[in-house]
Specification:
Layout: E1 4-8, H1 13-24, E2 28-33, E3 41-43, H2 49-56, E4 66-69, H3 84-110, E5 116-119, H4 133-152
Parallel strand pairs: 1-2, 1-4, 2-3, 4-5
Length: about 150
């Protein structure tokens, strides 16, 4: 039996390492990222519910066994220079995108006997860091979105 996974942030960092590890275990791995540095990775803006929905069409009615959301952004900025656009950008990319992705593949996850969702967040969601209000707040929101998903599922 072949297991199927979707990994966001699959072109680098934790996401890339997850893709490589799953491929070594013979999983069918689909990658989404804002930049496709891997030829098997699809360019998807996860801040867009529409793009997530369109990208999820590739799964059809097939089950999705594992969703790893390993994408994220951080632009350091002192609070004295932080504007709403930068705050919104962090929240959209690091937190609200988790809902977009989950809603896009919810049906496919429900078709798996072993569906697992892993949202990679950060200790920054609970521990302050210098010049990182937008990042920390978005990771705190991502932590709560993850806990709420677990509660509802």
């Amino acid at each position: 039996m072949t297991y199927r996974a979707l990994v966001t942030g699959s072109s680098g960092g934790i996401g890339r390492e997850c893709v490589l590890a799953l491929r070594r275990m013979s999983w069918e791995v689909h990658g989404w990222d804002y930049a496709a540095l891997d030829p098997l990775c699809k360019v998807v803006d996860v801040t867009s519910a529409q793009q997530c929905g369109e990208a999820a069409v590739e799964f059809g009615k097939r089950p999705l066994d594992l969703l790893i959301c390993a994408h994220g952004v951080n632009r350091i900025c002192p609070i004295s220079h932080l504007d709403h656009a930068r705050m919104d950008w962090h929240m959209q990319a690091n937190a609200f995108s988790l809902v977009n992705i989950f809603q896009a593949v919810q049906y496919n996850l429900s078709q798996s006997q072993r569906a697992t969702v892993c949202n990679v967040t950060s200790v920054a969601g609970t521990v302050p860091m210098t010049h990182s209000l937008a990042y920390n707040a978005s990771k705190a929101a991502a932590n709560m979105i993850t806990r709420q998903m677990a509660h509802e599922l």
